[in-house]
Specification:
138 residues; 82% helix; mainly alpha; globular
Length: 138
């Protein structure tokens, strides 16, 4: 958290980078929804998780010096954004015929955003092993 507060402009850049990467991936996901093989909740949520994971990976790659806090900044901001969107369009997700629809959609949305952190993990490991190799401690 300290590193995010110490590098506010870098954190803003990380958040913007994540969302800029996420925009075409989301558009592609919605375009794929019209294909017969990609029409279904499993495909939708899989592509959503993949989109956020790719965004987290790009944030980690473009902010190598501060990859962990910048991926976390993007993830926390995306979580806050998704929670806000859920509260604003609550009626859209509420279903009288399926009372589990809202909690399930909410949980899957939060899981997909957390995939951004998982997408940044490979970048964290690679950078750490490179720095250890440079120090000669491997």
């Amino acid at each position: 958290m300290r590193e995010i507060l110490a590098h506010k402009l870098l954190a803003i850049r990380a958040i913007l980078t994540g969302f800029i990467v996420l925009l075409p991936l989301t558009a592609a996901k919605h375009r794929l929804a019209y294909l017969p093989w990609a029409d279904g909740p499993l495909q939708f949520w899989s592509l959503t998780c993949l989109s956020f994971a790719v965004s987290g990976w790009v944030v980690a790659r473009t902010h190598r010096g501060h990859h962990a806090p910048m991926v976390m900044a993007f993830t926390v901001y995306a979580l806050a954004y998704k929670v806000l969107m859920f509260t604003l369009v609550f009626q859209h997700f509420q279903s009288a015929s399926d009372p589990l629809q809202l909690p399930l959609d909410f949980a899957l949305t939060l899981l997909s955003v957390l995939c951004a952190t998982a997408g940044g993990l490979p970048g964290w490991d690679l950078d750490e092993s490179k720095s250890r190799a440079q120090r000669g401690t491997d």
